[in-house]
Description:
By secondary structure, this protein is α/β, with parallel strands linked by helices. It is built from eight helices and seven strands. Helix 1 (17-28) packs across helix 6 and helix 3 (69-81) packs parallel to helix 4 (104-132).
Amino acid sequence: MGRFDGKVVLVTGASAGIGEALSREFAREGARLALFARRADRLEALEAEIRGAGGEAVALPGDVTRDGDLERAVAGAVARLGRLDVAVANAGFGVVGSLARLSLEDYRRQLETNVFGVLRTIHAALDELSRSRGTLVIVGSVSAWVSVPGTSAYAMSKAAVRALADALHGELEPRGVSTVLVSPGFVESELRQVDNRGLRHPEARDPIPGWLRIPAPAAARRIVRAVALRRRDVVVTAHGKAIVFLARHFPRLVAFLVRRTSGSRARSREHAAAHPGEPR
Length: 280
């Protein structure tokens, strides 16, 4: 018996990274999946994989930045799977670079996906989650707790959804809807292969050392367990938990460490943003 037997779970950004791993893990726990992302070919391959393993899934291509796409996805999930019990607002990407290098359009693009994409997911799914007394899962980031130079756009987007989740805990509880905020640290994914315009460069090397990253399936197992328990928030990865602890209790120490270590990393991130895919 799985922890989500018979439950219907919508995952945005399901075509790669944490979203793809979450979809597989929810399916292993008995859930029926509504898979949402822009890349229809990858969604259909994942749908076929889940069905081939004896699960149930439906691919619902769409874009979280387009009005109406998520409403159509929720309607499709309910029509084909009967209900909606969990909505995972996971779709996102990262804009990097110093304030001097980024334009207002860069910031708009970041917020449109990472903040308004989450809001579109919530608005589209809330009525169905209220009917099922279900769970809203918002995927944030440890960057919401500690902002370093060169990540202002990404960090502010994740701080915004962290604040949103904090507010929604109290707002949605009377409707029977639980809110779970997930704050991953460094997880192996395609996130750092994507440039500031949302285009992926498969040849790009991940600048994060391997010893700091955990595999996406391991992160997914921890997240699914937290969702099953309806935990208010979960920080994924040991280093992520350490960072959040220090940010909460020793902010001056964190500020000092950021100043000492961020210069070269910020330059590396800017180079990566300007030259994605270039060996580094």
